[in-house]
Each structure stands twice: as structure tokens, then as C-alpha cells.
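Notebook entry, structure prediction.
Reason for the run: the old model in the group folder had no record of what sequence produced it. Starting over properly, with the input documented here first.
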Amino acid sequence: MTDRPVAPLICPVCAEPLSADGRTLRCPRGHAFDEAREGYVDLLPAGHGRSRIRGDTAEMVRARRRFLERGHYDRIAAALEARVARHLTERAAAGEATRSTAGAPEATRRRAARMHRPTHATHERTGAPRAPADNPAGPAVPVILEVGCGEGIYIGRLSRSLAGAGDAGGIRDRATAGNEESAGSGIIEGSGIRAGSAGGRASENARIRCFGLDVSRDALRRAARAYPAVRFFRNDVKHRICLADASVDVLLDVFAPRNPAEFARVVRRRGLLLVAIPNERHLAELRTELPLLGIEPDKRERVAAQLGAAFRSVGEDVLEYRTEMTGDDVADLLRMTPNYWHLGEAELARAAELPPRAVTVAVTVLAFRRGAASVPPRSR
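New structure, fully documented this time:
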């Protein structure tokens, strides 16, 4: 019997909920999907969303693993963790307020609801598509999804952080830590939110459920072996995400393709969407010597506008720092990104021979809430 979470996964054929039957996921209509030996499940069957996305090769996956394990992007992971911790703390506080007024008079309950009601404009006022109602059939516990997860380092690190020993104060401290590295980890126990077991294995009773999707089998094989508490599944984010409507509390998109319509469908009202994008100065020192893909100068504004029909901006973390890279680091960096498809072996060999240097990492993590949106002024 698999220990990875199943709900709120849905069948890619009929959209009915999936449940575990040993190492097979089944829907009420009899469609079945076997878990691979490594632990992921393929929910991109033939004839149901043939992917147009070119998945990462085994070589790209190995390069990304080497590069990320050297810590060059640890500050990005820390920024994501801090944002997620803050969101889960707020979610737990809102839930505790709701429970504390459960037996109170109607007027008291209305006042409490107003205190936790988001202040953004509604879909009815903007004419944007109406958000789906919170999914009553889905789990009441937090669900975290990373799209385009690759070999799973970001969602895997987040899952392990949430599953670590600690108390309510631990995660709240991390929620206010800004972009600093988070050495500790914690749980929100008093408010009913709890992560998977300290041993790193999740179950259907675990109080936080983490999922990662990617189109690359090579990436998913490595992800599922490395992070057994996370449910990894094969999907094409540009086609359909095999999760129930309004079932996701936090959605992560780190340098990955975006599908605004599907993001809006699966994210709950008041759910959090985090999108990490490169800034113009990203890898500036390498661009003077290597023919890297360009970064659009208005990328932030275009992403915000792309998501603006269903999400509102709630801030951003602008990360800019320098990290020491060897020639091997640079070669792995090129192999793990779309640059790999545009560079020949000669350019990759030349990258590997570069002397050690400080390279600028410049990334913005955009934070959105499910709801009406507008593009905010740039913050620094």
C-alpha cells in the first residue's frame, strides 16, 4: 500500500476522484493507473492530453540536481518556504477563529467572518470568471502543489521542512523571517495543521499533503525516490492538472510553464500562488560570454497581467545576490535550463572551462491570492 497522499487527485479520463488500491490508483468508473516502481504515477495517458512540452532529459535532471545541491539557489527555496509558512499560519488562525465562534450568536459569527475576509475586489465587481466554490469533497487539510517540479527539490525541501519537529511558534517565527535562510522547521499544532511524520513518510492521515507534477519521466523517477512523502505525478500543466476544483491551498511555479485557467480552477479561494521568475540581471556575468536565452524586460508585468483575471498581487520578494560558480557549475546550469536545447556541445565545453567567478542570481518571487487582481507598482 502506497504511503503517498492520493486525495484530491482526479482521473485524467473522467475527472472522478482517485483512490489507492495497493500500488494502483482507481476511479469509481474503473480507470486504473499503476504506480511506477520509483513511486510516481503517470496521469498523462495516451489520447488524453498529449504533451507539447519537451520534458527534461536524464542528463538535464542530473545537471539540475548537482547544481541545486551545491546551494546556489538556496535563497530562492528559503523565500518560498517563508511565504508558505506565513500563509499556513494565517490559514490556521482563520480556522481557529471560525471554530471559536461556532457556538456564538449569528451576529458574532458575522463579525468574526468580516475580520478575516480578504479586502480585494470580488469577481462580480470586475467581471472576471467566478472562482469555483471550495471543494467540499476534497481534504480539509492544506494541499501544496508544485507544477513543473522537475526532480522535486523545492517541493521536497518544503515537505521535509514542514514535517520537521517543532511547535506553533517555530513555523510562525519562520513566517516572519523574510528571505533569510530558515534553519528550523515547525508545525502548526494548536490550530490543527500538522505535517507528515518525522520519518518523512506521508499517509492519508497526514495533515499537510504535498504534490509535484512534471511531464518528464526522468525527473519524476528521481523526485519520487528522493522525496517519498510527496506524491509526484506525470501531467502536462498546459493541458489539465489532475487535481479537483478548488483543492489547492498553495501552488508553486518556479521557472516553470504557467496555465492561468488551470491555476484558477485548482486553487482555493484565498489560496496562495507563488511564481518565481528571473530578472533582467539574472546571470549577467555569463551573458557577456555565452549566448544565453534573453529575458524580457517586462516579464514581471506580463506575468502579473497574465494571472490578473483570477489572482490579485499580495507582494513580492526580490532576490539579488552573487554566488561563486566554477566552470562545472556553469555547465550544469546551462544543461538544466532551456538554454540546453539551443547550445551545442562546443558552447557547453567552453562553459565548463570558464574560471571560477561570482555570478549574479536575480529572481523575483511573485505572490498572488485567489481573487481579483491588479498589477502593483514595482517594489524594491
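Summary: Confidence is low (pLDDT under 50) at residues 112-138, 165-205.
The old model has been moved to the deprecated folder.
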